[in-house]
Write the structure tokens for this entry.
Amino acid sequence: DTAVSQTPKYLVTQMGNDKSIKCEQNLGHDTMYWYKQDSKKFLKIMFSYNNKELIINETVPNRFSPKSPDKAHLNLHINSLELGDSAVYFCASSLGVGGPEAFFGQGTRLTVV
Amino acid sequence: AQTVTQSQPEMSVQEAETVTLSCTYDTSESDYYLFWYKQPPSRQMILVIRQEAYKQQNATENRFSVNFQKAAKSFSLKISDSQLGDAAMYFCAYRSANTGNQFYFGTGTSLTVIP
């Protein structure tokens, strides 16, 4: 029933590990996003996909690699995790470029120790 | 890039009173959307209200209303009859209606509701 779902909700891992966050939306939207929320609550765009095509790739280390197997899924894989990667990562979706509001997943709190 | 500014990092309001959260934005576009999102401690981002720039009428959703001043590029949120459940971070956001590849967020306002 959930519109945008992310898994896992919490992720604690050691430096140097590789981890993935999965995101799925059942709203029929064609645009999906990854946002990073830092400790000061600032939300910054990381990636944006429209119809499985990457349309925004902000200044993000190439250790972060998004994958969109279809319009309903956008996963985020992170290699060689660093302490500074600790944050909350939000997946979101919306209808079309320039469409209305975004719907957000519940966020994944990533803690790198 | 568009910028969204929220100049009030923290606000507080007595329960049942009214509070207004401020937001200004910078854009050269004429067609866009503005939003207020609420993020309670559960961290879920919840859409509170949306305003289309081409609409002169201010949007309202129950106890939430906006004051949209297009020329001044101002978009404030008024919460009437504040309730304890309104306590949260509130984010103002902008999205172009033509090239809207992303949402631009302000830095947020933390609202405390005092019983």
